[in-house]
Amino acid sequence: MLREKLSKYNVILASGSPRRQNFFKDLDIDFEIRLKEIEEIYPNELQGTEITDFLANLKSLPFDNELTENDLLITSDTIVWFDNEALGKPKNYDDAFSMLKKMSGKKHSVITSISIKSKNFQKIINDTTQVYFKELSDDEINYYLENYKPYDKAGAYGIQEWIGKIGIDKIEGSYFNVMGLPVHKLYKELMNL
User: Fold this and answer.
1) pLDDT tens-digit readout, 71-84
2) Is 169 a catalytic residue?
């Protein structure tokens, strides 16, 4: 359905995330991948969705002068929001351990924003999912980090991996949002173009 709907557009996904790229394939979208290095720095006063909205937009800015009439650029950002703090990608093993230990036995939010941008318009949407971790033992956290090395993931975990299967009691909201893309919201926006 989307392939037909977007046939007049050249869809550009500006993401190196294999998960996001697979979602685009699963949605049957013709797309190309274009990457630009960007420092993901945001103003300290931003909270929750303001952070991901800001970063999704920030990732779109380097493309501004090269978008043509029929280009459609999609950028995205995901954070874990816990205890009024954004948890991004862990710097190393100790940082990842610390994040998972903090969230053990507690609820956190996973927030993703998507920027859909052309030469003539931009729309930013976001989604939030509540995730409830069981109490994780140090052994479970160490096993996960040693075997899955989740250093490319916000909050130091992937819900689709071992830790999600054994460690998550429940979620409220979109599972795919926790993986890094609220596919249902993206689909709706693209169908409305």
Assistant:
1) 999 999 999 999 99
2) no
